[in-house]
Write a structure and sequence with these properties.
Elements (H helix, E strand, L loop, with lengths): L16 H6 L4 H17 L6 H26 L7 H17 L5 H24 L5 H20 L17 E4 L2 E4 H19 L1 H11 L1 H6 L4 H27 L10 H11 L11 H20 L4 H26 L1
Antiparallel strand pairs: 1-2
Helix pairs in contact: 2-12, 3-7, 3-10, 3-11, 3-12, 4-5, 4-6, 4-10, 5-6, 5-10, 7-8, 8-10, 11-12
Length: 332
């Protein structure tokens, strides 16, 4: 018998330097931030001031916290249109319980967080157990939360809040810049979520369910339990966002958060998380929220009307989704 020679496998095509750079996680959002910073620095001498950067973080802390919950849901190939309305309901619940019923602030906050988590649990139950599409489920609970907010508040803004509610709006000096505790709280929430998603089994299960739910189920993962937990935890983040909103505004506002659901999706998409699930990073979401905040702040400093801010944000979202779709097709 004669041995048959095996031909060597063809070498893999070399990636260009640009492709290698773009394949680094979160490099796209970082490049976008750097370009925006350079441009707005050239347009306004106030942009690079430490106080202005602190203001940008304050402006995105509410939407950023909402976007953490949105990221968890989009990683499972879902979407949540109700988060802004649920946050507004939590906002009203927390403030009315403290002002109208005289409950201690910690108890009012806990009850408000329980309410928003319950909405998340409702969304998760309908998605995971009854198998309804997340888009339809959260569109329905958006309407429910929106209506309950206006019914419970009687269209009135709640003021005269206890001092405990404004704690996260208090500042501490960092060099020549004043930093709010709310900004620090948002960053801590991002750090905790990053740790859970990247370094725990629970986080790996979230990615597995989003990537291929059937394969995840066959490997022993309880996909229904994962979805139920994801939507419930997301609801808890919406309650925390409501608390940060109360601290920032100093009132309970029934009209708050009307477009924050779309802003949170924008932050997630700009941060590189795939709308098809299974791929993305909560750090990318933070960068995406900062992109939106930097662009809006820079356009305000340069005197651009607010309607153009919305126009540019919409273009960025479409571009980010197009890039995600292109990358998916290239990987097949």
């Amino acid at each position: 018998m004669t041995a048959t020679a095996t031909s060597p496998a063809p070498p893999e095509p070399k990636q260009s330097a640009l492709n290698r750079i773009l394949s680094v996680p979160n490099v796209g959002p970082v490049i976008a931030i750097l370009i925006a910073v350079v441009y707005f620095t050239a347009q306004s001498d106030r942009f690079l001031a430490g106080g202005n950067f602190s203001l940008i973080v304050q402006q995105v802390m509410v939407v950023g916290t909402l976007a953490i919950g949105q990221t968890l849901i989009i990683l499972t190939a879902g979407i949540d249109l109700s988060n802004g309305a649920v946050m507004a309901l939590g906002n009203i619940a927390i403030t009315k319980l403290a002002v109208d019923t005289g409950l201690p602030a910690p108890l009012a906050i806990l009850l408000g967080l329980a309410l928003t988590a319950a909405f998340g649990l409702l969304n998760g139950t309908l998605v995971s157990l009854i198998k309804l599409p997340p888009f339809i489920v959260t569109l329905g609970t958006y309407g429910i939360a929106f209506a309950l907010t206006h019914i419970y508040s009687k269209e009135q803004t709640i003021s005269g809040l206890p001092d405990a509610f404004t704690f996260f709006d208090k500042t501490f000096p960092l060099g020549d810049t004043d930093i709010t505790y709310g900004s620090v709280a948002m960053l801590v929430l991002f750090a905790i979520t990053w740790y859970v998603l990247r370094l725990t089994a629970a986080g790996r299960h979230v990615y597995a369910v989003g990537n291929n739910p059937e394969a995840a189920r066959l490997s022993g993962i309880d996909t229904r339990r994962v979805l139920l937990a994801v939507y419930t935890v997301a609801g808890l983040f919406y309650g925390l966002a409501a608390l940060l909103l109360v601290a920032r505004t100093g009132v309970g506002d029934p009209n708050a958060g009307q477009t924050d659901n779309l802003d949170s999706i924008t932050a997630v998409v700009l941060g590189g998380t795939s709308l098809f699930g299974g791929r993305g990073s909560v750090i990318g979401t933070l960068l995406g929220a900062l992109i939106v905040g930097i662009i809006r702040n820079g356009l305000q400093l340069t005197g651009v009307p607010s309607i153009y801010q919305t126009l540019i944000t919409g273009i960025l979202v479409i571009a980010a989704v197009a890039v995600d779709q292109f990358n998916r097709r290239r990987q097949k």
